[in-house]
Amino acid sequence: MIETFHGGLIVSCQAYPGEPLRDPRAMAQIAQSAVIGGAVGIRAQGLDDIRMIHESVPLPQIGLWKVGSGGVFITPTLEHALAVIAAGAEIVAIDGTRRPRPDGLSLAETIAAIHEQTGALVMADAGSFDDGMAAQDAGADIVGTTLAGYTGEAPKTVGPDFELVRRLSARLDVPVFAEGRIHTPAQAKAMLEAGAYSVVVGTAITHPATITSWFAEALRG
Questions:
Q1: Which keywords accompany this UniProt record (predicted)?
Q2: N or C, which terminus of the chain has less Cβ within 10 Å?
Q3: pLDDT digits over 90-149, tens only?
């Protein structure tokens, strides 16, 4: 399955709480539009969204479950990961940092249990180079740069963290999925040139409020 992602675009279909598009049907429609546009995969958050996208979109799906908004909140426990897979995700994205997990399991124990109990693949969302190396050692099938600049371990770059992708791609044996602050087709292409196996784009494709604000601010400026 991972080979189907090689060199392609994964579209992250997510809406923030309180927004008009915070509805599984809306996210499924956005995912369907992404298919028409040429995406090779979908990333989605929340069990209801994952279920509906699984039923309506033929592409493989990376699912996650956000619990809270700080610390370890991306599919933070084994229980959450198993629920995401049961909802229809072929790959589960989990917090792939070296921080303590709420259920007391290590990252390696969590990944091993997911593999043994479901056979699903695991994408470890890392925040730094050391996170990425540790995630591979823990058994992750994919390492993503999703949390780069958000854990306090490394500075947040203004745009995409190209250097992190270069370093991880040069050292890891598992695929590196570039994700985070990729706002233009040129940046996405540059991520592949930096060594990324695949590129995940969310806000610039699926978040109308933010896209509108970019244009509005540019005109005001």
A1: Carbohydrate metabolism, Isomerase
A2: C
A3: 999 999 999 999 999 999 999 999 999 999 999 999 999 999 999 999 999 999 999 999
CA dist 144 → 42, 101, 130, 161, 185 (Å): 14, 18, 13, 12, 19
Which candidate, 88, 174, 102, places its Cα nearest to that of 138?
Answer: 174
72 in Cβ contact with 97 (< 8 Å): yes
Give the CATH number, domain containing residue 117: 3.20.20.70
For tokens 């780069």, the residue is: 148
CA 81 to chain centre: 14
Buried b (16+ CB within 10 A) or exposed e, 91-123: bbbbbbbbbebeeeeebeebbbebeeebebbbb
Phi, psi of 141 (to 5 degrees): -85, -25
Name the residue range of residue 125's domain. 2-220
Distance CA 197, CA 220 (A): 38
- Within 13 A of 72's CA, how many CA atoms are on the CB side? 21
Strands (DSSP E) along the chain, which ranges? 9-13, 41-45, 61-64, 91-95, 121-125, 142-144, 176-179, 198-201
